[in-house]
# Entry
Amino acid sequence: MSLELLAIIMFAVFLVIILSGYPVAFSFAGTAIVFFAIGVATGGVGIEITRALFTKWFGDSINNTTFLAIPFFVFMGAVFEKSGLAERLLSTIGMLMGPLRGGMAVAVVFVGTLLAAATGVVAATVIVMGLLALPVMVRYNYDHKLAAGVIVGSGTLAQLIPPSLVLIVLAQFIPVSVGELFAGALIPGVMLSLIFAVYALVLAFFKPEKAPAIPKSERTLTPRQLARETMKVVVPPLFLIFAVLGSIFFGLAAPSEAGAVGAVGAVGLALAYRHYSWKMIKDAARSTANITSLVLQILFASTFFALVFDQLGGQRLITDWLTSIPGDKWGFIIAANIIVFLLGINLEFLEISFIVMPLFVPAALALDIDLVWFSVMMAINLNMAFISPPVGFSLFYLQSVAPPEVKTSDIHKGALPFMALQGFGLILVMLFPPTVTYLVEFFGLR
Amino acid sequence: MWLVIPTVAIGAITVLLRYIGRQMGTALTTPGYTEIQLYLYGGIFLFGFAYILKHQINVRVDFWFAHQPQRRKAWIDFVGHLISLVPFCLLAIWVSVPQVVTSWRLNEQSTDAGGLPRAPIKTLIVVGFILLLIQAVAELVRLIAVLKGRPDLVDLEEVEEPLRIE
# Structure
């Protein structure tokens, strides 16, 4: 039996195991160990690859300042999520935008984007917004579909808008820095959120009954109080996010350092708003430890998988196959987008990053594709997959917290236009690579 | 007895994180500082391996799995742990121990000036996998109880929701 055949069987077995629901990390490890044994037995794989394994574990996983950014950014996001900052943000901006038709929807897009940037975690953003904003919009007679759509749409941007966990993990698989990816994703992320806001406003203009303004009697704050509250609640988190991103973009700090400062800053904000509690810190610490362990466990296992797979010639096989897709560069890009979209409907980004990106990247390099641009497209694509009914993850998150009068079908139908808008954004980015590369070059990160 | 492990892990994790918190403001000075962070972060997830297994928060592709009866889930995990997790831990320990021993013997130092010795953190890799192995065996025992129809013997106090992280 040829080694390539073995590699193909290995990948197939892996897919079967992973689909059975067995934990992803151990599926990688188990498949690898079985095929490692077969490989050694048939003489195709040298036992010495295990030595490289330890070196890679230590060098790529532990002694790696890129991944050090993960716990910091997760911690920062968890503090934002658990400290109740989101609640105040939303009520303030809601008041600010309320008098406008469709204003609540715009407020949700804005706060969603901000939270997406701050937490970098879709589930957190969508759930928080679903708990806080959805009941409010329902109370003000918003169209349920629009209300749900705007929440899943903007909440899911957490994957794209830097600093995002997805981008940090993606950076591990491609020879570009986290800073470059962050810079590349900024314009597309903000662009998408603007597109959402414009959509909400246009819809409110033509169909006022779908997105009414907040009635005057409900607006209790004087303009001056409102201005002060805005300064107090909106400006500091914005400042924090820009400080974190700015220090990365201008090369003042490594992503991990900026993340560390961001995490301390988030705790500082929580303190300043008196939303501090020991339990909150403990919860945040625990979810940080959990997420870090999860990511690294999969990395440890997939490192082994990749070693064995590569030894069997699987990587070369896939690269050959991907580069031979007709249509050259564009054929590959479109195929890659379709594959990631389809996978994204059922898998989380982690699985996709670990399974697919290592396979795609050599092909993308061979075809001379800008990897930052490519990765940002993949991230937008995952966004789209995330809100695709009926199985997109964001929809589940929202369902789990939606008030009973918002039906599941409302959420599904509401997500569709936002999916289309994301598709539109994806095409824009695809046709105009400078949307991604401009900032990367502007900050001289290349 | 094995309940102690995750408890220790939580303790360690919380302490480590608090410690990192203190480090964060001043972490920009020497390679040594950065390396302390790296080692702590390594500690978090190496201890975390066993912890997340104990608390069932590993990432699964669960659109099929979630709808299966308890027993079938237990079977999948049981067979999986037996043929992949346990051998993987053994392999990892077998691979790592010689290199850790070498590292101690040579008193290996960081490649950066002002860095820290390498051996302790490398040792942690072994410790992490030993903990994971012990936890895996504990899981096997638990799953046998479930498969024998006595899940009451092993009630999981603190099963968290599967974590969604993006």
User: Anything to note?
Assistant: The longest helix of chain B spans residues 70-106.
